[in-house]
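Q: Here's a chain of 120 amino acids. Please give me its 3D structure as tokens.
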Amino acid sequence: MDVLIVESARDLAQRWHDHMTRQGLEVRVAHTQAQAATALDTQEFQVIVLDLILEEGSALAIADLASYRYPDTKLIFVTDTAMFSDGSIFAHCANACAFLQSDVPPEDLTAVVEYHGARR
């Protein structure tokens, strides 16, 4: 399963990457909107783990690009804010399948990725 992690916090992205890789997933990391767009230009992913608040760029722009290019790709949003805590992200993004806090344990995030990636 191919997974794209889009997360500005390098340590957090690395922790998620390392755990998912140990579970046998193929994982690519992007830290900015531009890096994510480049990744989507060259590869299709079954699941994208996408932080809502990026230091450079817009998570919703990445979500729109992914939805347009790969309509079956599942998006798992993560955040450390209260933004979209009412669940409205699911109304804004048709590919959204989960909404988690950024401090989710890596093993739980990996389980969610595997579950939704398998359902694709």
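Q: Can you summarize the key feature?
A: The domain at 2-118 is CATH 3.40.50.2300 (Rossmann fold).
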